[in-house]
Amino acid sequence: MASETPGHETQETLSNLLSENRRFAPPADLAAGANVTAAAYEEAEEDRLGFWERAAERLTWAERWDTTLEWNPPFAKWFVGGKLNVAYNCVDRHVEAGRGDKVAYHWEGEPEGDSRTITYADLQREVSKTANALEELGVRKGDRVAIYMPMIPELPISLLACARIGAIHSVVFGGFSASALKSRIDDADAKVVITADGGYRRGAPSALKPTVDEAVSECPGVEHVVVVRRTGQDVATTDKDVWWHDLVDRQSEQHTAVPHDAEDPLYILYTSGTTGKPKGILHTTGGYLTQTSWTHQAVFDLKPETDVYWCTADIGWVTGHSYIVYGPLANGATSVLYEGTPDTPHRGRFWEVVQKYGVTILYTAPTAIRTFMKWGDDIPAKFDMSSLRVLGSVGEPINPEAYVWYREHIGGDRCPVVDTWWQTETGAIMISPLPGVTSAKPGAAMRPLPGIVADVVDDQANSVPNGGGGFLVVREPWPSMLRTIWGDDQRYIDTYWSRFEGMYFAGDGAKRDDDGDIWLLGRVDDVMLVSGHNISTTEVESALVSHPKVAEAAVVGATDPVTGQAIVSFVILRGSAEESDDIATELRTHVAKTLGPIAKPRQILIVPELPKTRSGKIMRRLLRDVAENRSLGDVTTLTDSSVMNLISDKLPSAKSED
Ligand code: WT7
């Protein structure tokens, strides 16, 4: 606990308030047969580069590298001189090894009964045809291809076709607006766009093509737009358009995958960040595929012969790039690919899919888990999910209570939960438990993976002692790290490498507990300064979620004449809980008891929804506007802007209780 003595207050970077005593040891059988054991940490400790070299040997190289790492801070090159083809590694080599009949994707469309099975041999044919098609359109190595698609098989096929010929893909999430798409096409100077007429969302066809037309009308550099017919809805056509089936279907199924350099670009993926122009995060081939492949089999203990793996993310985000496409396919996994939303046609859809395909590994986000909590325990209880053996979480800190709910109600109390911390920029998982090794604590990402050197430092860049809080940094380069921001090396240096000399810092607060394990505490921009204490939003939110009536919570610091900032909480109740008059008092008391009086919220607002980005992260900036009675800032990145009205409506009734 932070000292209450006034003289000490400025010393504290981030308070450590939450204590958690629950631990879940790995199941004995999983530990006994685990892909990765505790020895990996020692091996990597002894010889970090040697460890990553052995990981790179999982891949098939046309030419071996001569230098493992060339580090001119902050610019890294991994496996220098090595040559490989990413698509060959993800597809062809499995077919050549006799595994052509193995399922790569069980694709499940949103309309029930709409499904397709895609084997590795199918994938090889489709990727080859698509690579030939792109070449016919004039796409060459190094050219940029923008991809704006629903979650249909043609999406991973398009990524792999680009990778095969060495074109750089830039996937733009299908929920983004025409102007967001246009600015991304422009920044990367893409010459081809791949899209679809639409996709199914919430039970109805949702158009994509009109958005593309609007964007492309202002992008003279785009030469062709390839359109998959998915929904069959009417679409306007332009002279740049070509139907996928007209172009791809007639191509040869043979395509030679030429090797590319380990440092040739693989893709650009834009992160919006909180302000400013989106950053085009650039990833390259050899190091990226090494770390996505290694982490995928280590963190999920993937057994490619028997596991059915499902990552519920959209391929429009990095989670989908690394853990639906590249990592799983490099490992020869069988995955589920699902087009739609979790509540269509009913709120048990995910569990129905788990039951249908016998999913063994499930990787999803805290925002989804909290939604399932809100919907109620009875929904997953109706399905047979006994096939599950490992559960993963990514995208935000997972509140301990949400973790325990996930473990119990989805994992039947037998599956380890791995809370995986990483970013678009890191390309692959960096901090996570290993399911056969780690005695995991609910809410903690625990330790850097073998070969990763991460730390928590104070504002002077000194490592914090156990029990301390501060900034999460990475001290050594890693294979799947971003190489730069597309077209802007200086912004890369300024954004990630300037806060702390020689260290990568990308904006997260963290603490190290008394055992030395790492807990992520949210973005440092969201930290609240209450009476001189830096309090993380995550800890207060987790304290709220630990109350049996709460499903989800978001807290912000609002200007307060007495305390500098005061904590204002927005709370969604669980399906079973009833809103009562004294609920706010009950919750405030609960937080004070759990974290200490310093963290007691000034206000609690019971709301029906929270504002979220399209990738499911809570937008605390907008809640701060509400809490401070300001007009709302930019709402264009919200999934659903009407939620802000629902929230603002609650404000007048919310009085400070002190
Ligand atoms: C930010 C990166 C990583 C793929 C999806 C998001 C937050 C991510 C965790 C976690 C706490 C997490 C961080 C990070 N985050 N995973 N396990 N625990 N926070 O990629 O959109 O680039 O976002 O997501 O704040 O910096 P992204």
Please provide a brief summary of the model:
This protein is of the alpha/beta class. The chain is built from 20 helices and 30 strands. The two termini are 24 Å apart.
Describe the structure.
Among the domains are: 145 residues, Rossmann fold (3-Layer(aba) Sandwich); 110 residues, 2-Layer Sandwich (GMP Synthetase, Chain A, domain 3), CATH 3.30.300.30. The protein has 20 helices and 30 strands. The chain has an eight-stranded mixed beta sheet, with helices on both faces. The chain is globular. The protein starts with 27 loop residues before the first helix and ends in a 10-residue tail after the last helix. 5'-O-[(S)-butoxy(hydroxy)phosphoryl]adenosine binds next to helix 11, strand 24 and strand 25.
Top keywords for this entry?
658 residues; alpha/beta; Rossmann fold; 8-stranded mixed β-sheet; 7-stranded mixed β-sheet; 20 helices; disordered C terminus; binds 5'-O-[(S)-butoxy(hydroxy)phosphoryl]adenosine
